[in-house]
Structures are given as C-alpha cells and as structure tokens.
C-alpha cells in the first residue's frame, strides 16, 4: 500500500500535528527521505514522540519500520508515475469537454491565483467565471454545474469551501483543488499542491504559480496531441 493510501485510510484519527506531518511527507514524497526520527521531527516542527505516534496510527510498529517502508517505495516510483499520468489525463479530458468552467476562491492570495487560472484558460480559448464568498456560492445554478469543471482554491481554511463541496457532491462536476495542505487533497478529483504559505512572511507568488502553470502546459500539450489525431 502506498503512503498516500495509508494516510487517507487513517486520516480520521489524525490530530492537527498528524496532519502537519502528513503534509510534510506528501510535499516531499518524490524525495528520498533518509531522516532519523529526530531530523523528521525537526522538519515538521514537532517532537519525536509525535512522529512515533503518527507512524503507529498509520499501521507501523515504530519509526524504523516506517523508515524501511519509505525506502522501499522507490521501487514503485515508475508505477506511481504511470498512475499519476493516467489521473492527470482523465482530468484534462474532463476539463476539455466541460460545458462550463468555474473558479472559486476567497482571499487575497486566492484572488491572484483565480486571475492567473482565468488568464491561462482564456489563452487556450476556454471561458470561465470566478466566484468568492458565501453570497456568490448561493448563486450557483445546479444545472450549469452539471458536466462542468470547478477550480477550488483554498489556502486559508475558508469554511465556505466545504459548503461549496457539499453543494456539488452529487453532481457530475469535476473538482480541481488547489491547496497548500495535504489534509484537503481528498476533497477533489485532482489536486494541485502548492507550497505552504507562511504567516508573517513574504510568500513568493511566482513559485506558488509554477505548479499551476505546469498544469496548464500539460493541458495545452493534451489539446495539441488530440488535435493532431
């Protein structure tokens, strides 16, 4: 079983500290994490006891067993890459076939990302609408949401995000979630993970937009490939 699956399976047991550890591990899942328990605790800004409890919650007898598991995951990287590519192609196909595209986000940083997404879509000949806040969520028309794609940007624990997800949960709407925390990743059909924002510090907008730009470059390549068939 993959680390992501273990976390998903046990996430209901997690404390905020556990979620922070999960975020760090998933943010660095493509790196070789050959860290001691003390080093990992320092990276996650927590204690070695919290790391040990986390590994036990996801099914390991201790940190040594968990560390061995992390080393073994390198053998499955090729399979994971194929799986990720398949998931990406599925969401790109849905995006390309969508009748409507919506972009939701509530906050200053979210506004910057919304404008960027709208611009990327426009460059590729796709129109979209942007929304924010509770009042604008209430204006969503369920008929227009059918067979649509919605980008949901949540970097500030916006309570309205869960309300929106609840509203569209039973609709044939593809959800592309843009977030800086792993704990929200399971809420969408596809997640674009960006660097965690730091409070009281200058956060690089350019770096955080890189992952979003990569997604749209992939979308452009997907369209060019299918147009040439």
How does this model look, in words?
The protein is α/β, with parallel strands linked by helices. The protein has two domains: 3-72, Arc Repressor Mutant, subunit A (Orthogonal Bundle); 80-228, 3-Layer(aba) Sandwich (Rossmann fold). Helices cover 55% and strands 11% of the residues. The chain has helices at residues 3-10, 16-27, 37-43, 48-57, 63-72, 77-97, 108-123, 133-137, 142-145, 159-168, 205-227; strands at 101-105, 129-131, 148-154, 173-179, 190-193. Strands 2-1-3-4-5 form a five-stranded parallel beta sheet. It is globular, with a radius of gyration of 19 Å. The protein starts with a helix and ends with a helix. The model has no long low-confidence stretch (mean pLDDT 83).
Give the uncertain stretches in residue-range form: none
CATH superfamily of the largest domain: Glucose-6-phosphate isomerase like protein, domain 1
Tell me the helix content: 55-70%
CATH fold naming of the largest domain: Rossmann fold
CATH architectural grouping of the largest domain:
3-Layer(aba) Sandwich
Proportion of residues in β-strands: 5-15%
Oligomer: single chain
User: Under the CATH scheme, which class of the largest domain?
Assistant: Alpha Beta
Give the number of helices.
11
Gross morphology is: globular
Q: From N to C, what is the helix and strand string?
A: HHHHHHEHEHHEHEEH
Secondary structural class: alpha/beta
Tell me the count of domains: 2
What does the radius of gyration come to? 19 Å
Write down the overall mean pLDDT: 83
Number of strands: 5
Q: Measure the end-to-end span.
A: 37 Å
